[in-house]
Amino acid sequence: MNNRRLWAIIDRQKAAYRHKGNPIFMRAFDMQIKPLYDKIAETSDIRDVIVPELDNKAIEEAYKRLYMMTVVSFALKERKQLSKSFKKQDGDEIFEDMLYSEIINYLKVHTGATITAAGDTSLELIQRMIAKMVPEILDQGLAAGASQTMLRDQIQSAWHEMKYYRTERIVRTEVNRASNFGSLEGAKSLGIELDKTWISAFSADSRFAHTAADGQTVDLNGSFIVDGESLQYPGDPAGSPGNTINCLCSTYNQPKK
User: Fold this and answer.
1) Distance separating alpha carbons of residues 203 and 165, to the nearest angstrom
2) How far is the C-alpha of 234 from the C-alpha of 247, rounded, in Å?
3) Residues 195-245: pLDDT tens digits?
4) Are 214 and 6 in contact (CB under 8 A)?
5) DSSP of the chain, one letter per residue?
6) pLDDT digits (tens, 9 = 90+) for 123-132
C-alpha cells in the first residue's frame, strides 16, 4: 500500500476525533467569555464595561477531554494491531491505566503555555471588540438597556465567528498531535523492535519540509529530522510552532527490515 493511500486511511480515523473535538472547544470558548456577558448586564453605562479576568479552566478541560479520548483510542488500536502480528497478548488494562497517568503528565508539561496563550488571545480579541463596538453603539443614542443588549449581541456574533476558526485550528493540530503520540506509545508498550515511517499529508497546505520527509524511516525510539528539527512524531511539541501547528502528517510503525 502506498503512503498516500495509507495516510488517507489513517486520516479518516482522525477525522472522527476532529468531529468530536470541535463542539468540545466551541463550548469551552463560550464558557470562557460568559463572565463578560454577566459584566455587561451589571453595568448601566457600556462605557464603564471592564473585561473581567478570563478563566482558562474550560479550555484546560477541553484539552484534557480531547487527549484522553484520542490518545487512548489510538494507543490501544496500535497496540492491538501490532500484538496480532507479533502474537503478544494481555496487559491491556495495566497499559491503559499507565497511559492515563502519562497523558496527565504530558498535558502538564506541554499544554500549559498553550492554554495560557489561548486565554491571552481571547482577552486581546475581546478588548479590541469592545473598543470598536462601544463608540459605534453610543453614536446611535440608545437607552442604557438597549445599548447593553446591542453590545452583548454584537460580541456574541463576532465571538461565534472567531471561536469557529480558533477551534478549527486547535482541534486540527491537537487531534493530529494526540493521535500520533498515542500510536507511538501503543507501539512502545509492546517492547518489540520496530521502525516508524513519516507519512506526509500531501495536502494543498502541506509544508515543503513535511512533504520532503515522506517515507523517512527511523527506529521507533529515534527522531525524524524535519526542517532541521528532531521530532518523535508529526506534531511533536518539541518542534517549533511553525513546524507543528496545523500539521496533518501521520506515521506508520513496522517491523525492522
Assistant:
1) 19
2) 7
3) 999 999 988 888 999 999 999 999 999 999 999 999 999 999 999 999 999
4) no
5) --HHHHHHHHHHHHHHHHHHHHHHHHHHHHHHHHHHHHHHHH-SSGGG--PPPPPTHHHHHHHHHHHHHHHHHHHHHHHHHHHHHHT----HHHHHHHHHHHHHHHHHHHTHHHHHHHHHHHHHHHHHHHHHHHHHHHTTT--HHHHHHHHHHHHHHHHHHHHHHHHHHHHHHHHHHHHHHHHHHHHHTTT--EEEEEE----TT--HHHHHTTT-EEETTS-EEETTEEESSTT-TTS-HHHHTT---EEEEEE--
6) 999 999 999 9
How does pLDDT run across 131-151, given as a tens digit for each residue? 999 999 999 988 878 999 999
* Grid coordinates belonging to 64: 484534557
CA–CA separation, 46 and 50 (whole Å): 9
What does the alpha-carbon distance between residue 159 and residue 28 come to, in Å, rounded to a whole number?
12
Amino acid at 139: D
Looking at residue 224, its amino acid is F
> What are φ and ψ of residue 197, in 5° steps?
-125, 135
Task: Enumerate residues 6+ apart whose C-beta is below 8 A from 169.
Answer: 245, 246
Buried-state track 145-158, b at ≥16 Cβ within 10 A, e below 16: eebbebbbebbeeb
